[in-house]
Write a structure and sequence with these properties.
The complex is a heterodimer of chains A (171) and B (756).
Chain A (H helix, E strand, L loop, with lengths): L4 E2 L6 E8 L2 E7 L5 H8 L18 E4 L2 E4 L12 E3 L12 H8 L9 H14 L5 H7 L11 H11 L9
Parallel strand pairs in A: 2-6
Antiparallel strand pairs in A: 1-2, 2-3, 4-5, 4-6
Chain B lengths: L22 H6 L14 E7 L5 E7 L1 H4 L4 E5 L9 E2 L6 E2 L5 E2 L5 E7 L2 H10 L1 E6 L6 H5 L11 E9 L8 E9 L11 E6 L6 E5 L4 H12 L6 E5 L15 H11 L3 E4 L2 H7 L6 E9 L5 E11 L7 H10 L9 E9 L14 H19 L3 H8 L19 H10 L30 E14 L8 E9 L2 E6 L8 H13 L3 E4 L17 H28 L7 E3 L2 E3 L5 E3 H4 L4 E9 L17 E14 L4 E12 L6 H20 L5 E2 L2 E2 L17 E7 L21 H13 L5 E2 L3 H5 L1
Helix pairs in contact in B: 5-6, 8-9, 9-10, 9-16, 12-13, 15-16
Classes of the chains: A alpha+beta (171), B alpha+beta (756).
Chain lengths: 171, 756
């Protein structure tokens, strides 16, 4: 059993301490609680979306200790002691993260449901490959589905961000 | 990575690629999708669904559910206070099944509880005693007179089209039967709604992701037996729609539970439940026989369409009419005999999906055009050019195409687009560019390249006499414009377009949209490629009315007649050279106007399928390039080239986004997307088993916009959402036929169709 676990098997409650977007949260969760549900339902960070329940779509992508993770594939207890960044933690309306700006400027979204996960996965991709080719962007983000855009403007957003600009369609 | 300071968003006017006003919230994670909503004291709701495609309900025992701590309500058909059924065209679908279930996944009961897990336990504790019946799953048996599975019968609609010389036999005759699988809209943002009851249960407010707020309102009010003014709807953030949110799903259930408990209730579907919870694209079987002269001029089309509507009517009758009236494609044809059936079976209900019947028709007529080309010894481009429809030509319904109809222009422009520079088997030996992608299984030596074509015509707006309209209000105060409409923003970008219209008409910089809800008149549905034309027309009309008020105000204060005042680019000028801006004239004042835009009336079809049933049309051509591993039956779609008749590109980047997104769905139907059912049971209700195109599956898209402003459209623009997903599918299949030499007539094409 993970440290901090107490109670009987049936209704075990686990104490966890996680740092989310720079702020420490101590809480009690059931061992079966998924990280995405902890983020959405306990911390009310609803920017992280659930699109599939089967780790297929990537809408729930967050960063755990700096690496991109589909938060429906991880239990909240596994995040104990970890530092988590969600879409709410990477920029503000006044100081957007360049990846957010790039998606806005390049029409990298329509309905926007995949966008938070796509942005988080893309930031992680550029951390590993600061100057990716188009093929590397496609390979790197293949685990994130979008049903609206056909992906081209998303790829363009990421490439534009990697090139240090986000020249979009604004006129 | 270094942060950059946000730069002001320069929103443009019509014709510029203005940025989405909701882009900031959507990239920041602060945009509230309907599944993100909550309220104090909120309960959760959940739905019990039939495991059987066809069964009689002998009894339902709810006592176990009531014993679960935290359960606040358990409801069945007995608890529906008003009309027990609903539906977009005919109200044949029960809110909850009463005596019989007609598809696997049909709602039987719903519960409200203090936690989603409480609800799940409560659902598991409900005992339903079913007498399982043999499901009717073959549409041909439904047509042949199988025992009715619904009091309204097994034929949802039967319509024929008879035109011209019925005895004509062409010098060249080709025929074929084509099949289209059941496609899912697969929007990413799952169904979710939050209902908040009024004190005393006198009314209810619903926040929901939908395509048509007012239609939902009418159906909800009827089922709840509430006056329409006691039901208020606000659009919850919509995570894609594509037709799947046109019908009621959880709306009535959520409101009913809220009224029963006196507390806010939220229902949110899982992905699996979503596959059962909304209608899908009709699977279809289409036979066609084409007659032509030896030199390839199309003379006559014979066809028989069978669309499986599944258990309930939804929009099947309209989908069928769309399918059969587009049987000739964008080609001149004077004679036709077409018969169409939409059937009721115990399969999943089908209704609207992007393309709405025309996807199915186009897949068949484009297969036929390729056969005709081969029989006449013509190239696929030449046969299409030779028959291309123009303005003034007639449909097989007798309707004259009054629109700009640049079919030949679309074909020629597409043909002129560059073929991919990607060599067969990919560049630099990158295995991810091979058919099969990450499976890394393809052998370069087995890969063949093919090229194929698809061209289509698609009706825009509603048909068959429907009084189609949209409402918008423009309010100008202190130099700022506020726009109000009930147009559902589902991702298509109307919230970008509407301020573009206001800025263009009034010359102001600041134009914003109010919340989208039912406190204004209906905007109609966000479907049928209609909102740019219809709601765009309403916003245009409202802005022009406000402009007239501003001009009248200036004229009065200057002591001249209104006809003498010019408004250009936000500046009003009098004959003697006095000037004032719209901002100055509206300082401390309010100008307001509401406008309803209607399109010209359409007609019903007569019994021979003749009549002016459609409103307008748009055209598009697609050319697909594929690489196929003929040993393994794996396909990589390399490129789609397209030229689309858009009228006028009001926001070019948004138009391209629609084109690329639509092509993704067309490619998906061609090579991977299908809901598979066996004896009425779904076998792949998840994203691990229902495959969607990924970033690696998506081909390169080279697109050209054919911009010939449509005089009949308020803004000169045609709807652009549906055409991209219509002829891209047959183009891909034609390319696979070209690569393999196989006579493929079904989509999605499966590895064993190619390799065995």
């Amino acid at each position: 059993m993970p440290p901090g676990c107490e109670g009987s098997k049936g209704n075990a409650i686990v104490h966890i301490t996680v740092t989310v977007n720079g702020k420490e949260h101590r809480g009690e969760v059931q061992p079966r609680t998924l990280l995405v549900h902890y983020l959405r339902d306990v911390l009310d960070l609803t920017g992280t979306n659930v699109g599939c329940d089967t780790s297929s779509c990537g809408a729930c992508t967050v960063h755990v200790d700096g690496r991109s993770v589909k938060s429906c594939t991880m239990l909240a207890v596994q995040a104990d002691g970890c530092s988590i960044t969600t879409i709410e933690g990477i920029g503000t309306p006044e100081r957007m993260h360049p990846m957010q700006q790039a998606f806005m400027d390049n029409h990298g979204l329509q309905c926007g449901f995949c966008t938070p996960g796509m942005v988080m996965a893309a930031i992680s991709l550029l951390d590993e490959h600061p100057h990716p080719t188009e093929a590397e962007v496609r390979q790197g983000l293949e685990g994130n589905l979008c049903r609206c855009t056909g992906y081209h403007n998303i790829v363009q957003s990421v490439l534009s961000c990697a090139q240090g600009g986000s020249a979009g369609g604004a006129q | 990575m270094t942060d950059v300071t946000v730069r002001p968003v320069v929103d443009g006017r019509l014709g510029t690629s203005a940025l989405r006003p909701d882009g900031l919230a959507k990239t920041q994670g602060t945009f509230a999708f309907s599944g993100d909503l909550s309220a104090d004291g909120m309960l959760w709701g959940a739905t019990l669904r039939s495991p059987h495609p066809f069964a009689r309900i002998r009894s339902i025992d709810l006592s176990g559910a009531w014993q679960i701590a935290g359960v606040a309500a358990v409801v069945t058909a007995d608890d529906v206070p008003g009309k027990p059924t609903y539906g977009l065209i005919s109200a044949d679908q029960p809110v909850f099944a009463r005596d019989v279930v007609r598809y696997a996944g049909e709602p039987v009961a719903a519960v409200a509880g203090d936690h989603p897990e409480t609800c799940r336990r409560a659902l598991a504790a409900i005992r339903v005693d079913y007498e399982v019946l043999t499901p009717l799953v073959d549409p041909e048996l439904a047509i042949a007179g199988a025992e009715p599975i619904h009091p309204d019968g097994n034929i949802l609609r039967h319509q024929r089209i008879v035109r011209g010389d019925q005895d004509l036999v062409g010098e060249v005759v080709v025929e074929g039967t084509y099949e289209i699988g059941m496609q899912d809209q697969a929007f990413l943002g799952l169904e979710a709604a939050l209902a908040i009851p009024d004190p005393g249960g006198a009314g209810v407010e619903l926040f929901v992701a939908t395509q048509w707020l007012h239609e939902d309102l009418g159906q909800i009010a009827a089922c709840l037996d509430l006056p329409a003014d006691r039901v208020r709807l606000t659009l919850g953030g919509v995570g894609g729609a594509f037709g799947a949110r046109e019908d009621i799903s959880l709306q009535v259930h959520t409101c009913l539970l809220a009224l029963r408990t006196g507390r806010p209730v939220r229902i949110a579907y899982s992905r699996e439940e979503s596959f059962y919870g909304h209608v899908h694209r009709h699977p279809a079987r289409i036979w066609m026989r084409h007659h032509a002269t030896r030199d390839g001029r199309l003379q006559r089309v014979e066809a028989r369409f069978v669309l499986d509507g599944g258990a309930y009517a939804s929009t099947s009758s309209a989908v069928l009419v769309n399918a059969i009236t587009h049987a000739q494609g964008p080609y001149v044809c004077d004679s036709a005999t077409v018969e169409g059936f939409a059937t009721r079976t115990n399969n999943l209900p089908c209704g609207a999906m992007r393309g709405f019947g025309v996807v199915q028709a186009c897949f068949a007529h484009e297969g036929q055009m390729d056969r005709l080309a081969e029989a006449c010894g013509l190239d696929p481009v030449e046969i299409r050019l030779r028959n291309a429809m123009r303005t003034g030509d007639r449909l097989i319904t007798g309707q004259v195409i009054a629109d700009v109809a640049p079919v030949a222009e679309c074909i020629r422009a597409t043909a002129a687009l560059p073929l991919p520079d990607e060599p067969v088997g990919g560049r630099d030996g990158d295995p991810l560019r091979l058919p099969g992608g990450a499976g890394l299984t393809a052998d370069v030596g087995h890969i063949r390249r093919g090229i194929g074509w698809g061209v289509s015509i698609k009706n825009l707006m509603y048909s068959e006499g429907f009084d189609d309209f949209s409402t918008a209000r423009c309010r100008l105060a202190d130099g700022s414009v506020t726009l109000k409409f009930a147009t559902a923003e589902v991702g298509q970008g109307f919230v970008t377009l509407a301020p573009q219209i206001a800025r263009t008409v009034l010359g102001v910089e600041r134009a914003v949209c109010e919340p989208i809800d039912t406190t204004i008149g209906s905007a109609g549905s966000t479907s049928a490629s209609r909102q740019t034309w219809m709601s765009g027309g309403a916003v245009l009309g409202a802005c022009r009315a406000v402009a007239e008020q501003v001009v009248a105000h200036a004229a009065q204060s200057w002591g001249v007649s209104t006809a003498e005042v010019e408004l250009v680019d936000g500046v009003l000028t009098s004959p003697d050279g006095r000037q004032a801006t719209v901002g100055e004239l509206s300082a401390g004042r309010v100008f307001e106007a509401t406008f309803e835009h209607h399109h010209p009336p359409t007609e019903d079809l007569d019994e021979d399928g003749q009549g002016n049933c459609h409103t307008a049309f748009a055209f598009v051509a697609h050319r697909a390039v594929v690489d196929v591993d003929v040993e393994l039956g794996l396909v990589k779609v390399v490129q789609i080239a397209t030229a689309q008749d858009v009228g006028r590109a009001l926001n070019p980047l948004s138009v391209r986004g629609q084109i690329e997104g639509g092509i993704a769905q067309g490619v998906g139907l061609a090579v991977m997307e299908e809901i598979v059912q066996t004896d009425g049971r779904v076998r792949n209700a998840s994203f691990t088993d229902y495959l969607l195109p990924t970033m690696l599956d998506m081909p390169e898209v080279v697109a050209e916009l054919i911009e010939i402003p449509e005089p009949r459209s308020p803004l000169g623009a045609k709807g652009v959402g549906e055409p991209p997903c219509i002829s891209s599918t047959p183009a891909v299949l034609a390319a696979i036929r070209d690569a393999t030499g196989k006579d493929l007539r079904r989509v999605p094409v499966r590895p064993f169709d190619i390799a065995l």
